[in-house]
Each structure stands twice: as C-alpha cells, then as structure tokens.
Amino acid sequence: MPAARLAADVRIRDLTKHYGRLAALRGISFDVAAGEIFGLLGPNGAGKTTTLECLLGLRRADAGALHVGGIDALAQPEDVRQIVGAQLQAATLQDKITPRQALQLAASFYAEPCPPDELLERFGLHAKAHAAFDTLSGGQKQRVLLALAFVNRPRLVVLDEPTAGLDPQSRRELHAVIRQLRADGCTILLSTHQLDEAGQLCDRIGILHEGRLVADAPPSQLIAGARALPKVVFTTAQPLTATMVSGLHGVASVAAHDGGWCADTRDVSGTITALTRQLERDGNPLIGLQIQRPTLEDVFLELTGRAWMPPANPLEGGVTDERNTP
Ligand SMILES: Nc1ncnc2c1ncn2[C@@H]1O[C@H](COP(=O)(O)OP(=O)(O)OP(=O)(O)O)[C@@H](O)[C@H]1O
Fold first, then answer.
1. Which of 103, 153, 236, 294 is 20 to 30 Å from 259 at the Cα level?
2. pLDDT for residue 287
3. What is the 314 CA–ligand 1 centroid distance (Å)?
4. For the segment 175-217, what is each residue's pLDDT rounded down to a tens digit?
5. Coil, strand, or helix at residue 246?
C-alpha cells in the first residue's frame, strides 16, 4: 500500500435538516478527531443516515456547517468526495460482477486509485477475486463493499451500519478490518444500532435521539456517568428473604432473580462482604455470584427516556424525498 494520506478530521456545527415538516436533524454539533473511530448510535429514525448523507453531499442540509479535513463540505462537496470513501446502507452490486471487476471499475473513476490487488489483499478477498458477487457470503460481500470505499485512498471513511445482518463471526472479522484501517491512518465515522458494537469498536460515541445529539464521549466515560447502580446477582443453597437482602450494607433495592436475588448496590464490595459473612453465620453456602456493571444500554435509556423504538411514520406531515443525485 502506498503511503497513506493524512487522516481527516470532521467538524459539524448546528446541522439542521427537515423532510417537509419532519425535523430529522435539529441542530447537531460534534467533532471527529483525525484517526478516530466515531460511532453514531441511536434508534430507528434518530437521524444517523441523514447526518452521514449530508456529510457526503447526498442531501442538502437546511442550515449549519460541515468541514472535513478543513474543507467546507457544503460549499465544496466535490472536493470532499475526493478524500472521503463511503459504504451506505443496503448498498449492493450486480449479481455476476466479481470483486476484482468491481474494484477495477471503481478505480477507473480516479486519477490515483489504490490498485485492486492491494485492496483484495487488504480485505482478505484474494481467494474470491474471481467469484461472482452473488456467490459470496454476507461477510465477504460487506468486505467487497468496504474495499470499494477505499479505492480513492480516503482520509475519512463513512460507514452506514457496516455490520447490519452479519453473523457474530463476520462482525468480529469486520471489526478487525476497521481497527486496522484506523491503525493505517484513516478516520472512521460509522452508524450502528448495536450498543455492544459501539462499545467495543468506537473511540467515541455520539447518541442521536429524535434529531438531537444527547451524548458525545468515549464509551467508558458514558458508562462511568450512568446513574444506574451496579448489581450483585447471587443464589444460595437455602432461600433468603427480601428483607434480609435489603438489609445488607449498600443495598438500594432488590428483585427476585432466577431462584436467587438481584441487589442494586451503592457499594459492591461492601455488599458482597456483608453477604458472605451473613451466609457463613447461617451455614448457607453461596452457589452463584455475579457483578453486573451499568452498560451502554442503561446510558441510552437514561438519556432518551425510552428503549429502542421503531421509527415513527416517516411520511407523517406530507414529506418528500429530495435526495440529491450523487
Ligand atoms: N427521504 C426521506 N423522506 C422523508 N423522510 C425521511 C427521508 N429519509 C429519512 N426520513 C425521516 O427522517 C428521520 C431520520 O431518518 P434517518 O434515516 O436519518 O434515521 P436513522 O437514524 O438513520 O434511522 P435508521 O436507523 O432506521 O436507518 C426519520 O423520521 C425518517 O423517517
């Protein structure tokens, strides 16, 4: 691979977008640092795809500012396209085209493309270089689409739900590829519905909710800021009463759980110490013990006040599709 171009940063300010009367983006602002994997997270209809498509110049924003590597993406979309690669939702290729043919075709559009052989190697597709697209597995198809996003040696890659529909093994493989791309000096901006994926893969997460950015921080910081308490989940040889469990040091609330108890606690080690002492005194052996820390799911529920929801009727308000031609 020739020397990578410098990773590009992204700066988004007060981005607003309506579809008719529907406000899809209500003034969102965030930065993606050069060389970072940034994940946009949110339920259906939150505005993830709209954000990415505005950035790529596929949709016209109503207001706001967008810069990629210092280039004004609203004023100079053509210049931004030169340094950005993208894999959009539900992208696909002709059934009979092979990975090599698809990469050669894409390369013909650029002055200094990445050679197809290098991309086949990098994305683990050499063995399938001459196979028809419709004979590839889901994970292999995703890798071809990802490879296509790298033909123009991008400084930023935009991926809309890159692992949607993949099995866990293919998802893990794709995560490894994306991490390698970051190591090679590329900025990655992706959207996902998967909380676990966002937590494992992303350096920073932005949570979108009804067109607003309600959080923007590294996953560990989001989790550390969760209001939800850690849980001590345990089972014992002889049953315990709710009153006894509630009385343990640090316990804020209890619930029956799988033949045992789940205790929300303000002091995990204090609760466990008190529990084990009590059980020793009673001659009641502990059978199972688990500590559950707050998760991104807790954070999401706290920030949005609701669980993942399907999108509201997108056509409410007589909206129209005004997508620009790419
Ligand atoms: N072309 C369009 N015409 C009208 N409304 C649209 C159009 N595209 C998106 N919307 C609406 O704008 C809102 C934001 O949609 P968007 O696709 O950006 O959300 P998303 O977070 O990517 O959702 P998903 O996770 O389901 O892909 C939704 O209410 C959606 O129904």
1. 294
2. 95
3. 7
4. 988 898 898 889 999 998 888 889 999 999 999 999 999 999 9
5. helix
Model confidence pLDDT, tens digit, residues 215-266:
999 999 999 988 899 999 999 999 999 999 999 999 999 999 989 999 999 9
Q: Is the CB of 164 under 6 A from ligand 1?
A: no
Give the Cα separation of 72 and 80 in Å (integer). 8
For 8-224, CATH number out of 3.40.50.300, 3.30.70.100, 3.20.110.10, 1.25.40.10 equals: 3.40.50.300
pTM: 0.82
Residue 319 tokens, joined: 């909206």
Residue 90 — very low, low, confident or very high, per pLDDT cuts 50/70/90? Answer: low
Residue 47 Cβ inside 6 Å of ligand 1? The answer reads yes
Mutate to test the pocket of ligand 1, among 48, 321, 324 (most ligand atoms within 8 A of CB): 48
Are the beta carbons of 234 and 261 closer than 8 angstroms?
yes
Decide whether any atom of ligand 1 lies within 6 Å of the 40 Cβ: no
Calculate how far, in angstroms, residue 304's C-alpha sits from the geometric centre of ligand 1.
18
In the reported structure, the alpha carbon of residue 50 is separated from the centroid of ligand 1 by a whole-number distance in angstroms of 6
Q: What is the Cα gyration radius of the chain?
A: 24
Q: What is the DSSP letter of 20?
A: T
C-alpha–C-alpha distance, residues 304 and 302, integer Å: 6
Per-residue pLDDT reduced to its tens digit, 156-183: 999 998 887 778 888 888 898 889 889 8
> Is residue 188 within 8 Å of 150, Cβ to Cβ?
no
Residue nearest to atom 25 of ligand 1 (CA): 44
Measured between alpha carbons, how far is 130 from 275 in angstroms, rounded to an integer?
63
Q: Is the C-beta atom of 45 inside 6 A of ligand 1? A: yes
Ligand 1 centroid to 225 CA: how many Å?
29
Distance, CA of 78 to CA of 152 (rounded, Å) = 13
